[in-house]
Amino acid sequence: MSAHPLFPRHGDAASTDTHSGMTMDMGGDSSMSSSPMMMSVFQNSMSTALFSSRWTPHSTGTYAGTCIFLIILAVIFRGLLAFKSWQETRWLDKELNRRYVVVNGRGTLAENLSRDSLAKGAMVVSENGVEENVLLVRRRTPCARPWRLSVDPLRAVIDTVIAGVGYLLMLAVMTMNVGYFLSVLGGTFLGSLLVGRFISLSEH
């Protein structure tokens, strides 16, 4: 007497459960084995794409050219930082000089300085028997400078270009290619060697 299809025998049910469990385990193992590893390691492949799949070196010459490009880009980045530091100093000098422009009907430079909070007091300087009256001027603590149409848009453009070049260098390093990484470091060293003395500490 055969069992009804809706009521399988106990042995058949057990074998069915075992088979389905093995299938699930095998599926779980396959999904685990197919998942990519989250560990980043350096590699020295010469066919590593840079910024785009179309920019993929296919020979030693193109790979060397890509590394040279990264060196130049890193040098440009340091040059942009030096340019911004120089420009900020220039803007600050112009702003401070603007304070003491002599206008008809206004006080002289000495009078303006005596009323300004930068002036701390009068002093007498003596050198080689000659005495001169001078006014000690000290720089105040840094404060927010006024927004100027001739300064702030240009500052925003410079900051945007610096950020863009910096992110491109970061993407090159994130490829984990040894050659690209060393090229960025080499360009940074060369750029600092050339213009590092012009970069203020706040720009590093």
From TrEMBL:
Compartment list: Membrane
Q: What topology does the record note for this protein and the membrane? A: Multi-pass membrane protein
Sorted alphabetically, the keyword list is:
Copper, Copper transport, Ion transport, Membrane, Transmembrane, Transmembrane helix, Transport
Membrane-crossing segments per the record:
61-81, 154-174, 180-199
Which residue stretches does the UniProt record annotate as biased composition, category Low complexity? 15-32
By its UniProt entry, which InterPro entries does this protein fall under? Cop_transporter (IPR007274)
Annotated signal peptide: none
Query: What GO cellular component is one of the record's annotations?
Result: plasma membrane
What molecular function terms (GO) are annotated for this protein? copper ion transmembrane transporter activity
Q: Where is this region: Disordered?
A: 1-32
Keyword Mitochondrion in annotation: no
The UniProt record lists the keyword Cell membrane: no
Q: Which family does it belong to?
A: Belongs to the copper transporter (Ctr) (TC 1.A.56) family. SLC31A subfamily.
Q: What is this protein called?
A: Copper transport protein
Per the UniProt record, the source organism is Chaetomium strumarium
